[in-house]
N-acetyltransferase ECO1 (Saccharomyces pastorianus), 280 residues
Amino acid sequence: MKAKKSQRKTGKKQNLIQSTLQVNGGSKSNKLVKCDKCEMSYSSTSIEDRAIHEKYHALQLHGRKWSPNWGSIAYTKRDHSSTMHLSRSMGTMTPLNSSPLKNGSSIVHQEEKIVSVRPDKSNGEVRAMMEIMTLVNNELNAPHDENDIWNSTTEEKGKAFVYIRNDRAIGIVIIENLHGGNGKASDRGRWMVYDSRRLVQNVYPDFKIGISRIWVCRTARNLGIATKLIDIARENIIYGEVVPRSQVAWSQPTDSGGKLASKYNGMMHKSGKLLLPVYI
Ligand SMILES: CC(C)(COP(=O)(O)OP(=O)(O)OC[C@H]1O[C@@H](n2cnc3c(N)ncnc32)[C@H](O)[C@@H]1OP(=O)(O)O)[C@@H](O)C(=O)NCCC(=O)NCCS
Ligand SMILES: [Zn+2]
């Protein structure tokens, strides 16, 4: 199955996304294959589809190219020795940077940083961000109209943070300010029982910020990047204040999001049930 020609005129980035949607949700084709690494289905006989897959695959696995001067720096990691991480699966030390640049016998890591991106400039970084968010929404099956939490033109409802490694955006978090501009308590907070995914009835906890979206590219998962993104967001979302972990809520956590949430700020209830802070 091919994406419509008319949709290909408006620019390559958009095409990637629209075509992806068509390929995933479109009519049946006898030649559809599903990539087991990025999970995209596409027609292996169509040159166009193969090209679309190649781009999507690279984005999903390795993140998106990111210009060094995009965004405002919120955190920089320069201590190369501390880029070593204990791999959970292997129990061995592996570098956080999966593609270190070799320099003689020593390994040189490029700078890693987290930047915040403002939606009010119509430039490359905003377009890049929208492209990543479309991919994330597709992966999460999340509504695309919720993007306006970040790129609303009328007021600043939320903030986006991007993790950059080797000039690629490899993770993002979109944070929503649940108290809004006036600092008033929110009625959106709930507790979710981790096992059953049920919301606790008649309890309305007040959380300050919400994680609207969080995503890390596939080859960079399980290295603490999502955790770092949320930590830096907590320090940079409300001026002059570090939002405590306990004040961070999750929006409809996925399987992996639920696991991350349970580690990050799940609460053990006296009943023995693990509760996650969520918001609706
Ligand atoms: C959820 C996601 C953002 C986690 O990113 P990440 O960078 O791999 O997370 P971290 O490395 O910071 O994980 C922190 C902790 O959460 C746990 N965790 C995170 N994802 C997990 C998973 N898929 N399975 C098991 N545990 C997981 C880890 O055990 C880790 O704890 P530990 O260091 O004590 O072992 C990533 O898997 C992702 O992008 N998933 C697809 C998008 C998505 O589902 N987003 C969530 C929306 S709510
Ligand atoms: Zn693929």
About this structure: Residues 35, 37-38, 40, 53, 57 surround zinc ion (ligand 2) (CB under 6 Å). The chain has a mean pLDDT of 80. The radius of gyration is 20 Å. Helices lie at 12-25, 47-62, 124-140, 148-151, 225-236, 255-265.
